[in-house]
Specification:
The protein has about 325 residues and is an alpha/beta fold. The protein is about 45% helix and about 15% strand. Helix 1 links the parallel strand 1 and strand 2. The chain is globular.
């Protein structure tokens, strides 16, 4: 089954579907098949609209091969890939309904970025491991508790279902599909031709940012959160924070969790980690100095937290994300 149907919702990033197609076509060339009808991948781009013009977020337009409404979901297919969500709930519902009918007749179902939510709506991810863009991970976990949401990987493979994180991670996933279908050698050659990692180092956690959960209403907890962010080098133990609000540690934990949705210890660690990332991205300060300024105490502690949450060392993170121009301007 060499057919690949790529469903492209309106209003998204078109380079996802175009890049995926280019990778598959490069694999076809590497396969050196003289009969195009027997090439490993026969790609069809389908639009979710009633017209064939797919309008991208950038203002560019992609001409699709077919309208999804014209395609029989019961036709046997090798791979169906969804490259994102639509611009409205009605469009998403229609795609999810189509996927629900198509799933039993399809060997492999794949998503890129927010496309995983449409797979979830269709029931394709029930009882499976999956991932999506880091901004959508909490939403997916809360909305579909039957899904085991993976927060770190660039992509996740569970049986006949593959899901990937945001945007360009679809390219990583596509190379993995090529490797699964055609072997390591061809996948490696495609990656080399396109100047890509065959396996990108690290996961999407390097790119995600912690979004501090603000207390729902003004009051002592919200005021304390503001103070914490401005005093990261202070003693921010649960006992000290509870004492500052004249609460017992147990009651403080309970109130903080109720108002923010996270524990005070987790909140403090993530805020400190995010501050350390900012220092690494924007300054030339040493690891030990950053560790002191952000409350980690030592470079060893900072390294442990980075490796636990981001799967990279602080020095490696700086190499990948240091903004030299901004740092020079800020000095």
């Amino acid at each position: 089954m060499n057919s690949v149907l790529i469903i492209v919702p309106d209003g998204g990033m078109l380079f996802e579907s175009v890049g995926v197609t280019d990778i598959l076509m490069q694999a076809n060339e590497r396969n050196a098949c003289s009969d195009l009808a027997q090439a490993p991948y026969q790609v069809t781009i389908a639009t979710t609209q009633m017209h064939k013009a797919v309008h991208g977020r950038s203002g560019l337009t992609l001409l699709a091969d077919a309208r999804l409404t014209e395609l029989d979901p019961r036709e046997k297919r090798g791979t169906i890939m969804v490259t994102g969500r639509g611009v409205d709930a009605e469009e998403d519902d229609a795609v999810a309904s189509w996927l629900r009918m198509a799933a039993p007749y399809t060997q492999r179902i794949v998503s890129v970025c927010g496309g995983a939510l449409l797979l979830a709506m269709a029931g394709v991810l029930n009882g499976r491991r999956a991932t999506t863009h880091w901004r959508l991970l909490d939403y997916m976990a809360q909305t579909w508790p039957d899904i085991t949401v993976e927060r770190g990987p660039i992509y996740v493979h569970d049986g006949p279902v593959w899901t990937s994180a945001g945007v360009s991670s679809g390219f990583d996933l596509t190379l993995a599909l090529v490797e699964a279908d055609m072997g390591h050698a061809i996948a490696r050659e495609v990656a080399q031709d396109m100047v890509m990692y065959l396996r990108r180092p690290g996961g999407q956690s390097q790119f995600s940012r912690y979004l501090p959960a603000r207390a729902a209403k003004p009051g002592p907890i919200r005021d304390l959160q503001d103070w914490i962010q401005s005093n990261l080098a202070e003693n921010l133990s649960v006992e000290k924070l509870a004492e500052s609000l004249a609460m017992s540690p147990r009651n403080f934990n309970r109130v903080f969790l109720r108002e923010t949705g996270t524990s005070p210890a987790k909140y403090v660690e993530h805020v400190r980690l995010d501050a350390a990332r900012e220092y690494l991205e924007r300054t030339r300060e040493g690891i030990e100095q950053i560790a002191l300024q952000t409350g980690f105490g030592s470079g060893i502690n900072l390294r442990r937290v980075f490796e636990r949450h981001l799967q990279v060392a602080p020095t490696t993170y700086r190499e990948r994300f240091y903004a030299s121009t901004m740092a020079e301007i800020d000095r």
